[in-house]
Amino acid sequence: MASQREGDYLIHFLLVPLMSQSHLIPFVDLAKLLAGRGHTATILLTPRNAIRFLPSVAAKESLADSNSKIQFLVLPFPGKEAGLPDGCENMDSLPSPDFISKFFDASNLLQGPLEDWLDAADPRPDCLICDICLPWTADLGLRFNLPRIVFHGISCFTLLCSHKLKKLKVMGKLPQAADNTEPFQVPDLPDEISFTMAQMPELQLSADKKDGGVLDRFKAAEMTADGVIVNTFEELESGYVKGYRGVVKRLWCIGPVSICNTNGVGIHRGNESSIDESLCLEWLDSRSPGSVLYVCFGSICRHILATQLIELAIGLESSGCSFIWVIKKDPEVYSRELESWLREEKYEERVAGRGLIIKGWAPQVLILSHHAVGGFMSHCGWNSTLEGAAAGVPMITWPMFAEQFYNEKLVVQVNQTGVVVGVERCMTWGKEEEIGVLVRRDAVKLAIERLMGGRGEGEERRRKAREMAELAKRAVEDGGSSYKNMSLMIHHVRTLLNGIDRSGR
Ligand code: UDP
């Protein structure tokens, strides 16, 4: 039975994320936000992910304390049963993209053990908050008579574009073109938004097929949920939030959830930093305000060709700009090629003093919030895009896969807080090498000069980015739109719980 405070239930939420960094990180932030309001958040994790995320909450909470507001429910990952190698519990540890469907099989196999746990749980959590990528959670809600909220870690812009494309069967009506680079417009949106087929993610392309693909299963789980929360804020994409509100039963924008971490050093997010944070801050302190470009391509871009990264390295150097460049270290073969190039060319010596390379995991939110950072070159993963917006940092957009081309449009065209580096084709995640070198050094240099440079257009972009950060900060403060939306979501869950007979639970 849920506990009571001032006549209000303090709710026990069970959070069910996909085991991938860009899903786990915002889920853990969400848990912190719920706990901050006095509710209990139990997060489903697997053993290796629990070890990774323990420090993310340990500073705030003592997990050993049974009264702690953030709890971990640790269940074994059924990787072996699905044919994954030992110890592979997170998307970032898949040996190759060929294992992706096995990874999703294993994620789906979590349903059984979670049902057993819920069967035995006494008291049982009051409400589920589930990753959209785990549509089987709809069955849990039904079987245990639990309110279920779907959590989206992508933008309303993406959700609405994708919805319109599918509903109006836009792509099926397009003439077949050899290279898929003819632009087509997404109908019925607040702005004139065009894409090419080459920019469309695989999921969207398969959505028009007869069985509707994975998107149909996600959609069904979303439509039967009691509500939908999105890690965004209304002011960032108001027309699209309004548009998507017309699609689902209830929608609450509750982000940017990352802002709950912005106060300080030692905030562990996702993985342990590969650089001593105080050294990193010392380096940033030595740079002038707004002068540093931060370059990072998220948590799972691990297969970018060494030759592509060398083009980037030369572009960064020739721009003359200060930079922090985060390089992921595996798979071995590409990083070895890059490592030997960096060594033979004495690259790090050449850029010493103005270029800092982090090999592995960077404390991204900490870096973005430093006043020396004036630009963010990003692959446009949604978390990174939102973290850049929350920090008031304009972006160079370098989309690669999934919904990243949608995010580029929102940043560059709708909000005008970024410039494109000029990528035209979506690649398959994990097979980045197949597509070859897409961005040459001159394009890198040019984009940096446009973003970081002088007056006029550049200044206007920076002003808009700063304004957006103010709006983001206000959104999550008491009385702000995201703060209120979280209250509305909680109120709605309470209303549902009041209507549920919980005597037998
Ligand atoms: N991230 C980080 N340090 C890194 C790389 C990534 O902290 O070195 C975090 C980043 O702040 C973001 C998440 O990992 O919260 C990446 O999510 P995103 O949606 O941007 O991209 P994805 O990993 O899904 O490609």
UniProtKB/TrEMBL annotation:
**InterPro entries per the UniProt record, alphabetical:** UDP_glucos_trans (IPR002213), UDP_glycos_trans_CS (IPR035595)
Any Pfam family from its record, for instance, is UDPGT
Membrane-crossing ranges are none
Annotated family: Belongs to the UDP-glycosyltransferase family.
Entry's EC annotation: 2.4.1.-
Q: Does the keyword Glycosyltransferase apply?
A: yes
* Species annotation: Trapa natans (Water chestnut)
Query: Which GO terms label this protein's molecular function in UniProt?
Result: UDP-glucosyltransferase activity
Identify this protein by name. Glycosyltransferase
CDD domains, per database record: GT1_Gtf-like
For this UniProt record, the keywords arranged alphabetically read as follows:
Glycosyltransferase, Transferase
